[in-house]
Amino acid sequence: LDLDAVVHLAAFISIPESMDQADAYFRNNEWGTFRLMQMLVRTKNWPLMVYASSPEVYGNPIYTPIDIHHPMLPRSIYAVTKLAAEKHCKAMHEWYKYPVVVIRNFNTYGENQDISANAGVVSKFILNALRNEPLVVHDSGKQTRDFQYVKDA
Fold this sequence. Notes:
By secondary structure, the chain is an alpha/beta fold.
C-alpha cells in the first residue's frame, strides 16, 4: 500500500442495537479492526493507523472530567467491541512498533449527521426544534458536555 495513513472510522454505532446483535457488532467492530491491523502489518510501508474508538469505553464516569487514566468500564457490547479493537491496535504497536493513534471523540456533530433515534443530542435537538417538539433534557439539566464540530475532529 502506498498510503501515509489509514483513518479507521468504520463501525456499527448503536448501543441498544449492539445488545440485540452482539455477533454482528463483534464481527464488524472488533474482528474487522483486527483483520485490518493484520493486513496493515504485512505491508511494506506501514501507514499510520488512526483508530476512532469511543468514549463509551469509559462507561459511567467515576470522576469528571474524564482523563486518560480513567478506568475502562464498558457497559454495552458496542463499548466492549471498541475497547477490544483499541487493544488490538495497541498490541500491534507494542509488539511490532506499528504506528497507531487511538482517538475518542466526544459528542461530534455536523452536516450529514444521522438523525435517527440513535443520533446525538445536537441532531435530536435540531430535529425536535424543526418539528416544534420539546427539547428534552434528562436528569437534573445541570450536567455539561463538550461538543466537537465534525470539521474540527
